[in-house]
Specification:
The complex is a heterodimer.
Chain A: H1 6-23, H2 30-38, H3 43-63, H4 74-79, H5 84-106, H6 112-131, H7 147-157, H8 165-171, H9 178-198, H10 204-215, H11 245-260, H12 266-280, H13 291-300, H14 303-318, H15 326-333, H16 344-354, H17 362-376, H18 381-397, H19 436-441, H20 447-453, H21 468-471, H22 475-484, H23 508-512, E1 513-514
Chain B: H1 2-21, E1 35-36, E2 52-53, H2 55-68, H3 70-75, H4 97-112, E3 128-129, E4 132-133, H5 134-140, H6 158-165, H7 177-182, H8 185-233, H9 239-247, H10 253-262, H11 276-298, H12 303-308, E5 331-335, E6 338-342, H13 350-369, H14 377-400, H15 405-418, H16 429-436, H17 441-454, H18 463-483, H19 489-505, H20 507-532, H21 540-552, H22 563-576, H23 582-598, H24 607-620, H25 650-655, E7 661-662, H26 663-667, H27 674-699, H28 705-722, H29 727-741, H30 781-841, H31 843-862
Antiparallel strand pairs in B: 1-2, 3-4, 5-6
Helix pairs in contact in B: 11-13, 14-17, 17-19, 18-19, 18-20, 18-21, 19-20, 20-21, 20-22, 21-23, 22-23, 23-24, 23-27, 24-27, 24-28, 27-29, 28-29
The chains are: A mainly alpha, B mainly alpha.
Organism (chain B): Mustela putorius furo
Function (chain B): Involved in nucleolar processing of pre-18S ribosomal RNA. Has a role in the nuclear export of 40S pre-ribosomal subunit to the cytoplasm.
Biased composition (Low complexity) (chain B): 1-26
Amino acid sequence: MERDSGPEGVRRALGRLLEAVLASRGQANAVFDVLAVLQSEDHEETQEAVRACSRLFGALLERGELFVGSLPSEDAVMAGSQGATRKYKVWMRHRYRSCLNRLQELLVHPSFEVKELALSTLMKFVQLEGARPLEKPKWDGYYLFPRQLFKAVVEGLLSPEDDCSLLLARFREYLEHDDIRYHTMQAATDTVGRVTDRHPEVPLTFWNNAFTLLSSVSLPSQERGISSFYVKHGELPRTWKVVHLKEHRKAFQGMWLGFLKHKLPLSLYKKVLVIMHDSILPHLAQPSLMIDFLTRAYDVGGAISLLALNGLFILIHQHNLEYPDFYRKLYGLLDPSVFHVKYRARFFHLADLFLSSSHLPAYLVAAFAKRLSRLALTAPPEALLMVLPFICNLLRRHPACRVLVHRPLGHELDADPYDPEEEDPAKSRALESSLWELQALQQHYHPEVSQAASVINQALSVPEVSIAPLLELTAFEVFERDLKKKGQGSVPLEFIPARGLLGRQDDFCAQHFTLS
Amino acid sequence: MGKARLAAARTRGAGAPAGAQGGRARPNPNPFEVKVNRQKFPVLGRKARHAVGQPGVSRARAVHKRTQTLLKEYKERDKSNVFTDKRFGEYSSTMSPEEKMMKRFALEQQRQHEKKSIYNLNEDEELTHYGQSLADIEKHNDIVDSDSDTEERGTLSAELTAAHFGGGGGLLHKKTPQQQGEEGEKPRSRRELIEELIAKSKQEKRERQAQREGALELTEKLDQDWKEIQTLLTHRTPKSENRDKKERPKPDAYDMMVRELGFEMKAQPSNRMKSEEELAKEEQERLQQLEAARLRRMRGEDEGSEARKPKHLSADDLNDGFVLDKDDRRLLSYTDGKMSIEEEQSGEASDGESEEEQGEDLSEEDPENSSDPDGHSDLESDMDSEEDCGRPSGEPRQALGEGTTSIGHRAQEAARNQLPYTFAAPESYEELKSLLSGRTREEQLVVVERIQTCNHPSLAVGNKAKLEKLFGFLLEYIGDLATDDPPNLRVIDKLVVQLYNLCQMFPDSASDSIKFVLRDAMHEMEGAIEARGRAAFPGLDVLMYLKIAGMLFPTSDLWHPVVTPALVCMSQLLTKCPVLSLQDVVKGLFVCCVFLDYVSLSRRFIPELVNFLLGILYIASPNKCGRGYTLVHPFRASGKNSELLVVSDEEDKATWQRRGLSLHWAYRLKAQNKTEANHTRLSCLAVCLALVKGCTQFYSSLPSFYAIVRPLRALLMEHLAGRSHPPELQELCQSALANLEEPEPRCRPLVCAKSKPEPLKLFTPRLVKVLEFGRKQGSSKQEQERRRLIHKHKREFKGAVREIRRDNQFLARMQLSETLERDAERKRKVKQLFNSLATQEGPAPSHAEAPPDNQKVCPGNIQ
């Protein structure tokens, strides 16, 4: 067979072969030529071959010219004495299988176009095979889905070596369909289990790929939503598992639990926890099963603990979870870094929720107030503007804690009785202390902060100050606000004339820096 | 009979209250005309409006009214002609009567101006008033307006009196034309007399006027003369007074005279020259005042808010937060004998005052040289300001204690001589840059100075804007200089003085410019933080801007439009920028120094600064045990930069000498060898320790000082424990620690300020507006209103129906009476006819009797 050079020539040649194969069974051997081009090094040629295969086997699938049922080995059939049609079908089915194998290999091809094309071709085969199954139904109305093929696709997507995020983004379109989603969940659970069994040290790329795939699965919230199927069926019998949201949820839960039971890298912990409360927990069949993961994350410490709080809160609040020493751990989470982490707003929002109960013991609230005000001594102004009203709100909610700012009959103390090192809020002796830190912050350089701290000088007003608008405050916003504020009258000026860049003799700058 | 008496008695009983209430009851009503509506039982508070009625009277009134209106209409029901009033503008309310008259007059004229009279040129029109010829009236009574007569205030001349009232001769009694005609001789002479009188008085008036004008002219002339003399006499009279005098209305002759005498050529003593002590004292006082204002701003005692605070709580205060915050009434006062209404000086902003004083100080100096009437002002002020500017720029050099003073002066002199004397103010930054680039430091300074002097705002109108722009350009130029390679800090050092001067002149625009550059810097940093979560330390230019902002504006204010954002900016620098290199350490320490300088007077607390110093101490600590302190954000306990400042080379430690850090290092550490780098590290640590010491001094009075410095103390102990630092650093450590080691002061529990006792809740009755008595209460206000309207409508409707019915009855009565009248008339006429017929027939019987006779005869005859 003559071959023109270049992709154009290849395409024409492939077109001719295709027509020949489809026209008569006698020309079936031309399939080998098509499959050979599939192995080509050239990206363009590979793409052409993939397209040709897609058309070829698509047509064959539609015509039903592939063997249906469990596939016997090629040699046995060829040697056997079955009819020529059966031989042809089995033979063609073998070609089809080798084509699929090659396409799976192409899923990790360096070129994205090829990968994408391979993926869409495979998905096309999934659709066609689903419509005309290549296996015999066990009984009438049995639900058939090309599970093997689809599992292979998912496995190709969850490559341990390559970053497949782009391909996964493409795959997300198919996840719109309910059956695809259902089988993806099952296949992903399998794949994750197999990969973690196989590798002792699972590479980070696999985790990232798996997380990308898992996080793109989003269940509908209502049973009625399950109606869009990728593989078209006439009517949907209620006996099929795939039409029930409950089954979907089970699969979803199995998938996540299977994923989260492994030891994840820290960066992934954060990613999972960030989406935990609104895309994972609501869709689980039994959300309380997530408690293991959440407690593990809560014990990690630092930002991860802060993030785990959110999920824990939902479990405690909506699923009656009993969490011993919850407040003690929360108390332990308070260290100077809470004012500097990215999740500050989320953390304080939750802390506000946790401490909003009026049934908390006074010692606990006092310990929190004292701890927060201690930490406020290291906080930047934008955090102070939020945390000072927060502390005042605590005192407002719990009148028993007002002794922290108002102890008219107290004796003078030698030292602050509060023990900052103590981990148990009950033993921190916060109730015996006073919030001198707030008094110190009244001397803060930023006027709004000092004003906020001066609130304690007067008896606290009754209504709470809403801290919601303050949670997301950034330093830049504070800066902009200060810039826009207009003073009355003209700008006051320095009356000591400037003499030079470093200022007066006794200034720190002049003492410690030189111009040369 | 009995009934009537009863009614009368009742009337008497009820009439008294009715009279007391309404006052409408007739004083002595006829008891038979009074109808009393008896109340079954008295209800307290109910107004009995219709207790007594007078049906007869009201009916009569209604009938009367109907005869006035309805009957008239009825009578004119078949008449179609209408009376129209065609007087011009009679019913238009928009025209004033004068206008109306004018228009009417014009119309009249038009109407009369017919074709035949168009060639009639000099026919004078006769003006009339109330139909009488005005000319006629004028002749009779042209009364001299005695009010316009200023000389004889109120008193009339004898002749006039005689003429008008004299002798009671009834001369001016208005006489009918017939009377006048009868006694023609005498009145004519009288009239002449009066005319003469009038002419005389008019002439007198004219003369008086001329005289007055002459006097005024003279006064003006005198004023001008005086001014000339005055300027010769003294400079001291303030300009403003002159201006006032011009604006004032012309004084009268007497005042003028007095003043003339008062201002006789007298040498006025000018202010004596002040001795140096006095000058110093004045300066000191001024500084004290400024310092007091600064302290007030530092404590945040806003003058405005103080004024707003009500000093006195009235007994009527409802404690509802309402405060009459400004008394709008104006105070009446007299200045220079003229009434003037001044705004109340309400606790005038004292910093405004001080600034005013400052302004006055300036303006006091100003007129001496710059606002001279002669044309020398330019030169003088030029010289002066050059000296002014030269002085401070020369001084820092002395302060720095370098030996280059005289050389610098010489160079400056040289620069002064070489450069042109005038520079146009740059319109763009590029222009300024082209002016300054390529010149030496001294020349640049001189150029900037000269730009300022050439464009002093007192010289031309647009100069203010030009110089305001110059400030922004200079700031930009400084930014460029700071980012140059190497940074040209010396020039910045000098330019700061110029910036200060410009800032003193235009505080608002200067603050805007600085805000602008700060916003730029922050914006850049914010972008980096958004993108990567952290930002690098900015270039030297931002640090320079921060430093300069602290020098131009008072940093101790509680709130300041420039300083507060600058503080936030520095806080960002210290919390968001990780320390990655030695260069970052130098920059960070510089920011710390600036930060601490900002609060050096106000002693305000800066958490970020303590955190940063803690971090620096940590990265300099050779052996960390990490107990007793927690690092915060930009620093990490472990990582590649956690030992950035650790020096392990013993030799380098031995050779280290304590020196100030160079700002050039903040720009770029020149390829330093290892020893130099180590020395820099040690210097950084020394600066850090000094700053720690400064902090502890500043904050030792804070209530929770111990909690604030606890981590610092722990780290310093670590440093000391290692004993690995050079002795000088050890000493520094010791002294810093000594401040921290002080025993914690006794803690006094916090107590809130006693709040004002809350007033008792008074049980004032809830007032419900009763719109209508009866069962219509207890619903919402709208509902009540609706019901009230429905009720009113119903009543009105009924009333209208009743009225219509009564009208119809009245009309029917009228028609009936008409018919009756007509019938009666007819009857009467018929009767009359009959009567007349009867009278005609009266003689007829005789006549008729005759016929019977005739008849008698006739039949007889016939018979």
